[in-house]
Specification:
Layout (H helix, E strand, L loop, with lengths): L10 E4 L3 H11 L5 E4 L14 E2 L4 E2 H14 L3 E4 L2 E9 L2 E8 L14 H5 L3 E3 L8 E3 L1 E2 L11 E2 L9 H5 L12 E7 L1 E4 L3 E3 L16 E3 H8 L19 E5 L18 H15 L4 E6 L9 H10 L3 E12 L5 E7 L4 E7 L1 E4 L3 E3 L34 E3 L9 H30 L1
Parallel strand pairs: 1-2, 1-13, 2-5, 13-23, 15-21, 16-17, 16-21, 17-18
Antiparallel strand pairs: 3-4, 6-7, 7-12, 8-9, 10-11, 14-22, 18-19, 19-20
Helix pairs in contact: 1-2, 1-8, 5-6, 6-7
């Protein structure tokens, strides 16, 4: 971190996904000084990794990238990426956050994003940004539209050949870079820490992640993306186009065996969206969705569901009990059909698990905000003001407060920004009154 970078702000936004970016931009446009702290090497969150959004099928990058660029270039917003938050506490009218800047082994102030280090690195590693389906270099910028355009060195796979350091035109590569701790202060904070997916390998009935052609929905997003690993949809085991694709709903939600008894809300809709995109990408393929209940709750969502059925996507009501390796790289599903056929088996070339949403951050020991029974941040007035937490001056937005779609996330981020602005205005008024 540059020594010249400021550490005192009006608002601290924890999380640089679509909720955090929206809240930061709303406040920065009101001339408040905003700090955005993000754990990843780039802002953009989960949304920048998606192909398209439902129900409009608009390009996800086309929506997210302008907001990322606007935040990066806004004079009132400072980005702190690749950072971990150690604590978030309030003392009087001030919130103090202790931050650890993880080492990139690249000086962010010197790096110009030329990617010469990446081009010359001889070491290939699995690219998690592409679902693990392709390779990237041991030192690389995360993806083409990442912000900031700063490389990160994967020290676990680096063989210290020195090529990246030799070709860097600005001498930005620093093999001896250490983690750096610093503090940020603000008058209010917004938690937009997002979500994670339930682990693919946690449920033994579904193969525990060991069946090559059983993938999760975020991996399918990368296969469907125009800048994906294969530039088309192929199954991972042998690179063949699948003729039969299945979606298993509630694979990580409404399932007490995984500790997630709630509905994650978005799983039905993202499965339907992906199924429709697959029908376009693979017109001859059969796409089947195995479901317990279809929950199409938003504006236009029911019509979206009906459109999918009209396109020929098959919906089978039945809870999948087990998934096993089939013949010829296939996958066998065993489920109880609700149409009276009893226990049925079906074979598919590729299976996608519609995993549920769990909290992306645990505030325990870091921030004294309470969590609800589902472990998401608790809101104390969910009907009156769904962004209020039980910590004064700290608000929450997006999936940090519970599972929700992108539309609701953006709306809630705007509400959190409004609450934070009102809180700051009340503080200023109170200060003026005391001074008088």
């Amino acid at each position: 971190m540059s020594a010249k970078r400021k550490t005192n702000f009006d608002v601290l936004v924890v999380g640089g996904g679509i909720a955090g970016l929206q809240a930061a931009l709303d406040l920065a446009d009101q001339d408040y000084q905003v700090a955005v702290v993000e754990k990843d090497a780039t802002i953009g969150g989960k949304m920048i990794r998606l192909s398209k959004v439902f129900p409009t099928l608009d390009c996800a990058s086309c929506i997210t990238t302008p907001k990322m660029a606007a935040a990066a270039h806004h004079e009132n917003i400072t980005l702190f990426t690749y950072c971990d938050m150690g604590s978030l506490d309030r003392t009087g009218q001030t919130i103090t956050a202790t931050i650890t800047q993880r080492p990139r082994y690249v000086d962010a102030d010197k790096c110009i994003g030329c990617r010469q280090c990446e081009y010359n690195c001889p070491v290939y590693v699995s690219d998690e940004e592409q679902g693990g389906f392709s390779a990237t270099k041991a030192i690389a910028i995360p993806f083409s539209n990442a912000i900031p355009q700063t490389a990160v060195l994967n020290v676990e796979n680096c063989m210290l050949c020195g090529k990246c350091e030799k070709v860097c035109p600005t001498q930005a590569v620093d093999y001896f870079q250490q983690a750096e701790q610093f503090s940020l202060t603000a008058n209010t904070a917004i938690l937009t820490t997002g979500f994670s997916m339930t682990p693919l390998a946690e449920k033994h009935q579904y193969g525990m992640g060991r069946i090559p052609n059983v993938i999760d929905a975020l991996q399918m997003e990368r296969l469907l993306a125009p800048h994906g690993p294969y530039n088309r949809v192929l199954r991972p085991s042998d690179g063949m186009e699948p003729d039969s694709i299945a979606y298993v709903q509630c694979a990580g939600s409404r399932d007490k065996s995984m500790g997630v008894s709630y509905c994650s809300r978005v799983c039905c809709m993202y499965a339907i969206k992906q199924a429709m995109l697959l029908s376009g990408a693979l017109p001859l393929a059969d796409v089947t969705i195995y479901y317990m209940d279809i929950r199409a709750f938003g504006k236009g969502y029911e019509q979206f569901y009906q459109n999918a059925k009209a396109m020929g996507i098959e919906f089978v009501k039945g809870k999948v009990a087990s998934i096993s390796q089939g013949e010829n790289h296939g996958v066998t599903l065993r489920f109880e059909a609700q149409n009276g056929e009893g226990t049925v088996t079906a074979d598919h070339d590729l299976v996608v698990l519609s995993l549920g949403m769990i909290p992306g951050w645990n505030p325990s020991g870091v921030c004294p905000v309470s969590t609800a029974g589902d472990r998401f941040v608790k809101t104390i007035q969910p009907k009156l003001s769904p962004t209020l937490t039980d910590m004064e001056g700290v608000f929450v937005a997006g999936a940090a407060a519970g599972p929700k779609d992108i539309v609701d996330t953006i709306a809630e981020a705007g509400a959190a920004a409004m609450e934070a602005a009102n809180y700051l205005a009340a503080q200023q008024t109170s200060a003026k009154t005391r001074a008088a």
